[in-house]
Design a protein that fits this description.
Number of domains: 2
CATH superfamily of the largest domain: Histidine kinase-like ATPase, C-terminal domain
CATH topology of the largest domain: Heat Shock Protein 90
Order of helices and strands: HHHHHHHHEHHEEHEEH
Strand content: 5-15%
CATH class of the largest domain: Alpha Beta
Oligomer: single chain
Strand order of the largest sheet: 1-2-3-5-4
Helix content: 55-70%
Number of helices: 12
Radius of gyration: 33 Å
CATH architecture of the largest domain: 2-Layer Sandwich
Structural class: alpha+beta
Length: 402
């Protein structure tokens, strides 16, 4: 509730400010003795400009279009006023402080958020609309300078303020990126110095245990399973060590994490490795689809985490089914199901574990969703859905939108 109120405060303040400007316009019109015949046209144009200005908060992605609409309405208003002054229509149109300030607000927004030459053109036309209005609606004379100069001043202040905010945003984004890079380096060092060290110790001890087991009397007969068990521990630890080193490399790199394999099937096979209980069902349309490295990497890690959960919490599972298909709306759906549900209907207990939380966070970064839970027949299913039609968000969008 407090967040909603805090988000609405700027809008409320803006509404109050524009209401005050509209009051000033009415007072000025009365004191200057402007014709009442031209007031309805000016009122309609000003209200339309205000509506477009306020809509920029609701549709930030349409800022350029909304700004173009505001400037076009203002220039059209001035054009009609120029015709009136030339005698085409005996209908005078007055100036509007509200209109000029609204254009200044849009110019500030474009100077702050706009990109490319389009933003430069909009800022330039905004200045033209703010300065040409007094000449078109009042006529050329000494008094016009009293109106044109404030319009040009407001345009300059709006442009400068937008550029200052743009610079502040850039500095803030860079500070966040630097903080994130520093944290990634710290995590990479801890993973390398602590976790990798211990996993390497497991590999060495498993190799030593295999040598000891091989030298024991009768190891070729009754103790063969022991040696095979040590070999499996060695392979698992070696795979974990390789994955840990790759993760450290990703953390130390400045670019986004990339899929270590090309294609969904290869990514899934690398995640499954040699687990004999696992089967992969990849539909033809999913296999032919190129989801991009971010989606492939995410599905790879989700399968890895799902298999880890099965080994930790569902050791009785005899079959693990992995299915990937393309659903309606150009979305990839990954299902990982196993038959290791215990008698109480769960595999990992009722609480939300870090593994599931991590899966949800990875998918949320791509605009996807995750569902997990037991199913009839003693099964547990994890279903991940991620869009692949261009609606995915990059991992840095949350930072760049600040």
């Amino acid at each position: 509730m407090d967040d909603t109120v805090s988000r609405r405060r700027p809008l409320v303040a803006e509404l109050v400010g524009f209401a005050g400007l509209l009051t000033i316009d009415e007072v000025m019109a009365g004191r200057l003795g402007l014709s009442q015949a031209g007031r309805p046209l000016s009122t309609v144009v000003v209200l339309a400009i205000l509506a477009l200005t306020l809509l920029r908060r609701r549709f930030p992605g349409r800022l350029a279009l909304l700004t173009g609409g505001v400037i076009a309405l203002s220039l059209a208003h001035s054009g009609v006023a120029a015709l009136f002054r030339l005698g085409a229509f005996p209908l005078p149109v007055g100036l509007s402080v509200t209109e000029i300030v609204a254009i200044g607000v849009m110019v500030t927004a474009v100077a702050r958020r706009g990109t490319g030459w389009g933003a430069v053109i909009l800022v330039g036309f905004g200045g033209a609309a703010m300065t040409v209005a007094p000449f078109a609606r009042t006529g050329v004379g000494v008094d016009v300078k009293m109106f044109a100069a404030p319009g040009a001043l407001i345009w300059g202040i709006a442009t400068a303020f937008g550029l200052v905010l743009r610079d502040a945003d850039g500095r803030r984004v860079q500070a966040l990126l630097d903080a994130r890079r520093t944290e990634r380096m710290r995590i990479a060092r801890e993973l390398h110095d602590l976790v990798t060290h211990h996993v390497t110790g497991i590999v060495v001890r498993a190799q030593a245990a295999q040598l000891v087991a091989a030298r024991q009397p009768g190891s070729r007969d009754g103790d063969g399973d022991v040696g095979q068990g040590y070999a499996q521990i060695e392979r698992a630890a070696t795979a974990s060590l390789t994955a840990m080193r790759e993760l450290v490399g990703v953390l130390r790199s400045d670019g986004p994490a990339q899929a270590k394999t090309a294609g969904l099937r290869r990514a899934l096979q690398d995640a499954v490795h040699d687990d004999p209980r696992t089967t992969i069902d990849l539909s033809p349309d999913a296999e032919a689809l190129d989801p991009g490295p971010d989606v492939a990497a995410t599905l790879h890690w989700i399968v890895l985490e799902a298999l880890t959960n099965v080994r930790r919490h569902a050791d009785r599972a005899t079959a693990i089914e992995i299915c990937v298909r393309v659903a309606a709306g150009r979305a990839l759906v990954l299902d990982v199901a196993n038959d290791g549900v215990t008698g109480n209907g769960t595999t990992a207990g009722p609480e939300e574990h870090y593994g599931l939380t991590g899966m949800r966070e990875r998918l949320a970064a791509l605009g996807g969703t995750l569902t997990a839970g037991p199913e009839p027949g003693g099964r547990w299913r994890i279903a991940a859905r991620v869009p692949v039609d261009g609606r995915r968000r990059s991992r840095d969008d949350a930072i760049e939108a600040v």
